[in-house]
């Protein structure tokens, strides 16, 4: 004789236990906030730009003067074709009128300085420099 397949299942057996606090244990205290040391600080300064605001190539000129040429790439407006010209060179004071230098201005309105390289030692680079400008 064959057995008939089971058509119902047993009800699940679930036990819920409630844990009681052990005698002598107190609930944890809520965290407190210390309001006496509320210090407000300024955010850190932004990092310097990856590229300087302006860069000039300084070349020696006649009679001990130097001229600064803009080192920025020149982009002509499309409607002008190839007829636009770069800015004219500007007269600047230079540490040695017989060498070429690179002059940079890190941020707009900031001070200019010469870049330390083979023509400009650390003393030359630390000396104040005049930013080029049309006079």
Please state the CA-atom Rg, rounded to the nearest Å: 38 Å
Q: Which of globular, elongated, flat, extended, rod-shaped describes the shape?
A: elongated
> What is the helix content?
under 10%
* Helix/strand class: mainly beta
Strand content: 15-25%
User: Uncertain regions: pLDDT < 50 for 5+ in a row?
Assistant: none
Give the N-terminus to C-terminus distance in angstroms.
117 Å
- Main β-sheet, in a few words? 5 strands, antiparallel
- Chain-averaged pLDDT: 74
Per DSSP E runs of 2 or more residues, the count of β-strands stands at 5
| Helix count from the secondary structure assignment | 1
Strand arrangement in the largest pleated sheet: 3-2-1-4-5
Order of helices and strands: EEEEEH
Structure description:
With 135 residues, the protein is mainly β. It contains one helix and five strands. It has a five-stranded antiparallel beta sheet with strand order 3-2-1-4-5. It is elongated and about 115 Å long. The model has no long low-confidence stretch (mean pLDDT 74).
How is this structure best summarized?
The chain is mainly beta and 135 residues long. It has one helix at residues 122-126; strands at 54-60, 66-70, 90-92, 101-105, 112-114.
